Every structure is written in structure tokens, then in C-alpha cells.
């Protein structure tokens, strides 16, 4: 997916040009940094007990609805907001810091 | 190989059944090559084709984040989200293509039913792929494998994985009163090593040392030295407080490579080569050399200064005090003062008949201290050079305690190793359980000397810092917690230690620990006495809030005070 040349007035081409978010994501993935960050995040979330907490939440949800009445989709939809809310601030801060450092190092 | 699909509750969806009937396990096995195991042990799917784009993307919308699925039939990658699912559209367009595999998790997914499905043969394939990828990891000689390291992992002392803790049924019993005290464990005699065993028992129950080592303040992982008394102490504390009541046996630990008792001896021997040998050594010498050894191995060399009084290593923080000696010229009264650091106070026992009349007999500890701090006339052959007279004069010398240590160790000089005399003094010495050192402080001694006159001190603040009242300030009150006593003759005697724990006294005779009455301890022939500042003692009657306030007057730094408070709180 290449960024096309920006021709003024040509709104059609804007769809091909990656947004900032996509560009960052691309950079992260290409350099392999995203994998490392994902692994780090997984480690931190296990350490702080987040994973165990979420597991318990999933179990509770499944038990309440009945095992055969839950699809993976419903579970994800129900648990995701809780999961996002439960991530500790210091973990968020650390990850953001690493991303920032990485972007600075590749002179983004 | 019991898996989900064989459990009675699970029923595969019709699409899975259909797929299996048509393709059996061919598709799964083809996938096995594509399954890699990423740390921390998560199986994932990696496409082996070398595209210019290493990132898997949805064939329809090129999305690369979120959940991506690869069709089992045609390997088309599609994205999935509850709002728009290209995976679903793919399955709807092409019948028979309902099944896909989650790229990140290696799980089967049915695009029509919108749910994960499970199959025993598929799971078997994943397990095989997992096993073969593990074989590629570095493996140690004992057959264990190491998971690939996360490059971002901080180099910290990784302990066990986090698990929330619930007390087991045994835990309340351990903390209950009446149960044997924590850390009480016999030490095997390895050939006249009772001199070491008795001192080690005292050290193991010195409250600030206990807090320090049990609080992991000596970091074994970061320790550079191969022979380190600090590491051996750490091991010993861990073993003593492990809850195991069997005595340490060097042979056992030789097997399990926890040679700490043996290695402690070994390290100490290496350190104090002149004292090495299997003969009975002096317990006090051992104490001094153990303190020096732990100081030498202190992990932060910048804390170790030439002056022991300022050294911040744990043993000096605990044992180091300051003794002041004043030498007064008899001609002009000029006094020269010197402060020397010390880790213990050695007390003479002998006294002449005249001294016995004037001073309290040296058969009590307080009497010995009186002797220690009394003004002593230096003989004519010991004249010192007086600066104000500018000539040699006869002088009077007086000792006092300038700064009290946290743990005060008294050494009763029972053994005489001079050229003419080689003997032991058996005199019984009476000692108190609670000791107030206020009257032996430099401020009090100086006041006595000058008869309560206002003191024009040598340098402001010379005597400031000591409490002017000299009476019961918290930092001059001490509680006895350990006694090392010697019985028998000079050669071939025996050392035992008495420990005061939980209001009771325990006799530690090498591997044998017995509870004894207070009268037994009082009657013993004390050789070394260990006192700790009252506010840190487990035995004092002060409640925890009081002790917390008193911490402010102590010479410890905050960290050790806090961990000590915690340790004491647990014991209480």
C-alpha cells in the first residue's frame, strides 16, 4: 500500500493515502516493533493480574449466559470495555513511552 | 487425547461436520507447517510465502489489525468484525469455505455461525506444532527449555509469576501464638564448630539483620563475588526461617548445593585464613571476623569508607558505635578527646581487691561497665604528650560511649592469651534483661567528671546530640535478646547460645534446641551478650504505634526501620 502523490483537488486519491494512524502502524509492523510491544504488553498485563481478572470476568459472563448461548463475538463485545478500563495507567504510560521513543528513533 | 469435541456438552456445528466429512484431516496437517509458537507460548499462524508485504491483510479491504482469519480451503485472508465481516461474505459467496483459522491464536472459526469451533484432530496438530517449535528453542543440559526472551524485559530478579494469594489452612497456625517461634532451627556441629554455631544463632535473631536479609536487601543475583559472606547469610536466613525444623546438615546441602553452612564456614575460613582449622576457635574472634567479612562483601563499595563509623553497610549500621576516650593531663587539666568506632564493647573481669571495695564488684555487667568508664590513671611509663604544657605528663584516661549502636554486643574477657598467662576466668557475671546505657554516655560521664558544671566544650556540639537529660530517652534503653556462653576449660570447652523469642528463652546447643526457664539463662556463664535498642526489640511491651514514633530518634535509615517494623508487626 503505497502513499500516492498528493494531487491537489483530487479527493479520490485521498483514500489511497494512508492516514497518520495507518502510517505509524505500518512503521511499527515493518520494523518488527509492534510484535515486541505486543509481547511486552502481554507480559505487563499478566504481571499486574489483568489477565487473571479478565479470565474471571469471561468465566462469570459465560456461566451467567450458559455455555452454549455465548459466541466468541458476544463475549468479546461484552468484555472489551471492561478490559480496556482495567488496564493500569502505568502500563499505558510505559507503552506510550516506548512508542514515542521508537517514533523518535526512526525520525518520524 | 481427550479434547473438547469428545466432551458430552460440545457439539460441532454443521459446517465443521461437513468440512470434516469432505476433507478429514488433510487441511489441518497442511496447516501444521504454518503454525509457529510465539512467546509466551502462543501458537500463531504465519504465512510462509515471501510476499513483499510481510503483514497479513484482509483480501477485501487490506485491513491489517483486528482479527484476521484464513480460509481453510483457499487460504484467503479476511478480516472479521461484528459490524462488517469480510470473512462472512467470503463464506457466503463460496459454499464449502465456511471454516477459517484465526491467525493470531490458531483457533478454528466458523464464519457462518460466527463462533469458534473445536476439533480434536485440529488440536492435535496444534500441539504437535507447538512441540516441534519448542525443540528449536535453546535447551539446557538438564533437558529443560527456555522460552525465547522478550527483548524488552527489564533485567530484574524475575521471581514466580504473579498469582493472587489466599491464605492456606496452615498459615494461621504458623502465626498463632504458642507455635514454635519462627527462625528457630538447630545447627549441626561439623567438628568443634560450636563457636560459630552460637554466634550464628545470635546473628540470625538480631532484629535489624533479620529484617535486612529476609527483606532481600542483599541481592544474590547481583552479587559479583564468588565467595560472599553476605550471600551465605542470605541463604542461612532463608533456611532458618523456611519453617523446616530439622537441623542443617552440611552433607544434605552438599547434595543440593546449598552449602551455606559449610560455605559460610568456607568463606569465613578463606576470609580469616589465620583462624582456619578445626580446632576450637574463639566465638568473639569469629563474630569480629564475620562482621568484617560481611562488610567486605557489602555490595555497594561506595558506602564502605575507611571510617567504620560512617560506613553504611548493614553490619556497621547495626553494630557500629562510637567510643570516646578522654585523656586529661594531671598538670594542667587539658583534655584530649578521641572517638573510635567499635562493633562491640570488651569488658575486663579482673579487679584488684581495692577496686572491689570502691566499685561495684565486677561480677555484674553494670559493674563491668562502671569499671570500663571509670577514670584510670595512666602509669608513669605511659605518660602522654600534653599540648598545653608542651611536655610529657602523667594523665588520667576515661572511656565513655559517644554513640550507641542499634545492637550492642558485650564481650566478657574470659580468655587470657598473654605470654605469661593462658587461662580462662570463670567468674560468674550477672546481667540484666533490660539495660539502660544512659549513665555511660559521654554526656553523662563528662557531667560527672566536671561535677555538674557548665561545660565549655571542645567544639560546639561535641556533647550536643546526646540527650541532655541522659535519663530514659528511647535510644539508650536496650533489651537482651541473645547470650553466648562458654562452659568448660580453656581447651575443649563448649559454646551454647540462648535466644529470647516470644517471651521465652531457648537454648541452642548446636543441633538441639530446647526451651529453658529464665533462671537457667541468668545462671549461665555469659561470654557474649547481645542487646538491641528497646524500640526494635520483639520483647518490649511497647505497642506498635509507640514503636513507630520512636523510630524517629533511631540512627537507622528509613528503609531498614520500615522493614523492621513490618517484621516486628508480623511477629507480634
Automatic annotation (TrEMBL), chain A:
Question: GO CC terms on record?
Answer: DUBm complex; nuclear pore; nucleoplasm; SAGA complex; transcription export complex 2
| Lineage: superkingdom | Eukaryota
One protein family per Pfam? EnY2
Keyword Cytoplasm present in the record's keywords: the answer is: no
* Keywords tagged on the record: Activator, Chromatin regulator, mRNA transport, Nucleus, Protein transport, Transcription, Transcription regulation, Translocation, Transport
Biological process (GO), any one = transcription elongation by RNA polymerase II
What is the annotated localization of this protein? Nucleus, Nucleoplasm
Q: Which residues form a coiled coil?
A: none
Q: Which residues cross the membrane?
A: none
Q: Name one GO molecular function term.
A: transcription coactivator activity
Name the HAMAP family for this protein: ENY2_Sus1
Its biological purpose:
Involved in mRNA export coupled transcription activation by association with both the TREX-2 and the SAGA complexes. The transcription regulatory histone acetylation (HAT) complex SAGA is a multiprotein complex that activates transcription by remodeling chromatin and mediating histone acetylation and deubiquitination. Within the SAGA complex, participates to a subcomplex that specifically deubiquitinates histones. The SAGA complex is recruited to specific gene promoters by activators, where it is required for transcription.
The protein's assembly and partners: Component of the nuclear pore complex (NPC)-associated TREX-2 complex (transcription and export complex 2). Component of the SAGA transcription coactivator-HAT complex. Within the SAGA complex, participates to a subcomplex of SAGA called the DUB module (deubiquitination module).
Family, as annotated: Belongs to the ENY2 family.
Record's protein name: Transcription and mRNA export factor ENY2
Q: Which organism is it from?
A: Selaginella moellendorffii (Spikemoss)
UniProtKB/TrEMBL annotation, chain B:
Domain USP, by residue range, is 185-534
Give the keywords, sorted: Hydrolase, Metal-binding, Nucleus, Protease, Thiol protease, Transcription, Transcription regulation, Ubl conjugation pathway, Zinc, Zinc-finger
Q: Which PROSITE patterns does the entry mention?
A: USP_1, USP_2, USP_3, ZF_UBP
- Tell me, what is one Gene Ontology molecular-function annotation carried by this entry? cysteine-type deubiquitinase activity
Q: Which Pfam families match?
A: UCH, zf-UBP
Coiled-coil intervals in this record?
none
The answer, when asked if Zinc is one of the entry's keywords, is yes
Q: Where is the UBP-type domain?
A: 40-136
Subcellular location per UniProt equals: Nucleus
Write out the similarity annotation.
Answer: Belongs to the peptidase C19 family. UBP8 subfamily.
* Described function: Recognizes and hydrolyzes the peptide bond at the C-terminal Gly of ubiquitin. Involved in the processing of poly-ubiquitin precursors as well as that of ubiquitinated proteins.
PANTHER family tied to this protein:
UBIQUITIN CARBOXYL-TERMINAL HYDROLASE, UBIQUITIN CARBOXYL-TERMINAL HYDROLASE 22
Q: What is this protein called?
A: Ubiquitin carboxyl-terminal hydrolase
